[in-house]
Amino acid sequence: MTELFAGIDGGQSSTVAVIGDERGAILGRGIAGPADEVGEKSDSTRLRDALRGSLGRARDAAGLPGSTHFAAIVAGISGYEGRIYGARPDLPTDRLVLRHDAPIAHAGALAGEPGVVAIAGTGSVAYACDKNGGSQTLGGWGFLFGDEGSAFCIARDALALMMAAQDDGGRSLREETRAACDFFAMDSLRQVARAFYAGELTRERLAAFTPVAIRFARFRAIADRGADGLATLAFRLLVEMKERRVALAGGLFADADFYERVRRGILPAVPDAHVGHAKYEPAVGALLLAYRELGLQVPELRQ
């Protein structure tokens, strides 16, 4: 009987699950809502529901029955540090491993090989693993204390500039302000701020404004500063961990200028570094780690 494995990427914006068989064939993929527990209370089912929902949709996409049991499941959770604050996940496996999302992104981006991954999505972090199994993290302090180069921070700083310009009575950011109000479907920046503080506007929704914001030259500088900060974290890890491979992962790297800014920020400091896009998405990285839980080495995944 073929054994089945699953990898799950529980992010701040969405949760993605993939299912693979023991030969490395990916059979199905499913998406559910965000899984991180930042700000959640003890009765929260956010994490449990996101993992269960994404796995269920991946199982349906693969044409598998509801009674399907998995040999191992690895789930990477944004902000996870070894503690579950809400309802515990209840997935159909005897081997469920929860990890921070950085290791699964690393495993996917570098196909399980050593090196550095720089992640720029709703949040940001730089994470490295060396050939001896050592690891180190820089950044990833969350939306209040860090996350330079993240979509949330870029959107927040762009909105802050607009709000300051409004207080100054200036007209220079009127077009940008109109774009922001249209994006959030609100009449004013004060409504945007109030909605965020009231919890009606999520961090994920705020971060989603970044692709709109960076179309404006005034806000491109904010993105550039974030890219420079993320590049600095990545090349520090390259030097400290004595590695030479960097993968750039996360939604912000779909923007060619942001990608090039980070890449160019790394190469002058470490000229012989190889910098490129992630090979696999984080959910696939989690799947690779699920195989490793049972000692399986899958040379190449078939998607």
Short description:
By secondary structure, the chain is of the alpha/beta class. The protein has 10 helices and 10 strands.
Please name the defining characteristics of this protein:
about 300 residues, 10 strands, Nucleotidyltransferase, domain 5, single chain, 5-stranded mixed β-sheet, alpha/beta
Commentary on this structure:
The chain is of the alpha/beta class and 303 residues long. It folds into two domains: 4-111 and 280-293, 2-Layer Sandwich (Nucleotidyltransferase, domain 5), CATH 3.30.420.40; 114-278, 2-Layer Sandwich (Nucleotidyltransferase, domain 5), CATH 3.30.420. The protein contains ten helices and ten strands. The protein has helices at residues 46-61, 101-109, 151-167, 174-184, 189-197, 203-207, 210-213, 217-241, 256-266, 282-293, and strands at residues 4-10, 15-21, 26-32, 72-77, 96-100, 115-120, 124-129, 135-139, 245-249, 274-277. The chain has a five-stranded mixed β-sheet. α3 (151-167) packs antiparallel against α8 (217-241) and α8 (217-241) packs parallel to α9. The longest helix has 25 residues, at 217-241. The protein is globular, with a radius of gyration of 20 Å.
Provide the CATH superfamily of the largest domain: ATPase, nucleotide binding domain
Count every helix, treating DSSP H or I runs of 4 or more residues as helices.
10
- SSE sequence, one letter per element: EEEHEEHEEEHHHHHHEHEH
CATH architecture of the largest domain: 2-Layer Sandwich
Give the helix/strand layout.
Elements: E1 4-10, E2 15-21, E3 26-32, H1 46-61, E4 72-77, E5 96-100, H2 101-109, E6 115-120, E7 124-129, E8 135-139, H3 151-167, H4 174-184, H5 189-197, H6 203-207, H7 210-213, H8 217-241, E9 245-249, H9 256-266, E10 274-277, H10 282-293
Parallel strand pairs: 1-4, 4-5, 6-9, 9-10
Antiparallel strand pairs: 1-2, 2-3, 6-7, 7-8
Helix pairs in contact: 2-10, 3-8, 8-9
